[in-house]
Write a structure and sequence with these properties.
Order of helices and strands: EEEHEEEEHH
Helix content: 10-25%
Largest sheet: 5 strands, antiparallel
Shape: elongated
Distance between the termini: 28 Å
Radius of gyration: 16 Å
Number of strands: 7
Number of helices: 3
Oligomer: single chain
């Protein structure tokens, strides 16, 4: 399973919904590009679950830029954005072990890869979108 997209600028997604963290590494950006952390925070807030049919799992989705940014600007090295998973109650998913959840990518993921992380979907979880949203928020300002 390949988790990197792009050639001149690439984005590598990492993590699982019930792992330590989830995020993205953005590589190929020139140094000196402004990184708007308020915009990044706002974009991440838009993908959070809400409403009656969404998951009841709530996360702060507070990101940390681990590398590639200094004094609000890109350094030219890979940018690593990590978002810790804080509400990982994997035991809640024990009753769905071996079952595909309706409206989720569980079945497709299992058919394609022959393996599925039943603790909330792993890489087929909705939380996986956070790395994409974080990378998109950086790219939108370039």
């Amino acid at each position: 399973m390949k988790n990197t997209i792009g050639s001149n600028v690439s984005v590598t997604l990492f993590g699982e919904s019930h792992g330590t963290a989830i995020g993205a590494v953005i590589d190929g950006l020139a140094p000196g590009i402004e990184v708007d952390t308020d915009f990044l925070d706002f974009q991440l807030s838009l993908r959070r679950p809400f409403g009656k049919i969404s998951t009841s799992r709530q996360e702060a989705d507070k990101f940390e830029i681990l590398s590639g940014v200094f004094n609000g600007k890109t350094t030219g090295t890979p940018i690593c954005i990590a978002i810790p998973n804080e509400n990982t109650q994997s035991k809640d998913y024990s009753k769905t072990y071996g079952k595909a959840r309706p409206g989720h990518a569980d079945y497709c993921f299992d058919e394609k890869y022959g393996f599925r992380d039943y603790r909330g979907g792993g890489r087929s979880s909705g939380r996986e979108t956070m790395g994409r949203v974080a990378a998109g928020a950086i790219a939108a300002k370039v």
